[in-house]
Amino acid sequence: QVQLQESGPGLVKPSQTLSRTCTVSGDSITTNYYYWSWIRQPPGKGLQWMGSIAVSGSTYYLPSLKSRTSISRDTSKNQFTLQLTAGTPEDTAVYSCASDFSLDAAYWGQGPPVTVSS
User: Fold this and answer.
1) At 90, phi and psi to the nearest 5?
2) What percent of the chain has pLDDT over 70?
3) Tens of pLDDT along 78-118?
4) What was the pLDDT predicted at 37?
5) Based on CB atoms within 10 Å of each CB, which residue in 47, 82, 92, 109 is the most buried?
6) How many CB atoms within 10 Å of residue 42?
7) Long-range contacts (CB closer than 8 Å, 24 or more residues apart) made by 105-112
8) HSE-up of residue 35 (Cα within 13 Å, Cβ side)
């Protein structure tokens, strides 16, 4: 069974980079039907897809976040990561990793809330 474990700091200062890591077990991140994705949910708001990385290594980003977002992977560790630069309090959210860009992806890993605050 595929399992995703999301991890990273729970507190980020404004203007700093917010980094999250998703460790995948139960299947390889290079398996050819996944789009490994990052999705977040700010307090009191809905889910927001942020971006995805395909098996090919191609990346796709939400246009409004594209200038600040980078998704990469480490196939040796079976992990993929999110970096969101120039953090603001509006980036405070629960960040989740998922196996597809669809909000009904089969596999999810949800971490604790991330707060951007001084």
Assistant:
1) -70, -10
2) 100
3) 999 999 999 999 999 999 999 998 888 999 999 889 999 99
4) 97
5) 82
6) 15
7) 105/37, 106/2, 107/2, 107/3, 107/4, 108/4, 109/3, 109/4, 109/5, 109/6, 109/22, 109/23, 110/6, 111/6, 111/7, 111/8, 111/20, 112/10
8) 15
Mean pLDDT computed over 10-39 = 94
How is residue 4 written in tokens? 């995703």
The answer to whether 79 and 15 are in contact (CB under 8 A) is no
60 residue type, one letter: Y
Q: Give the CB-side neighbour count of residue 67, counting CA atoms within 13 A.
A: 3
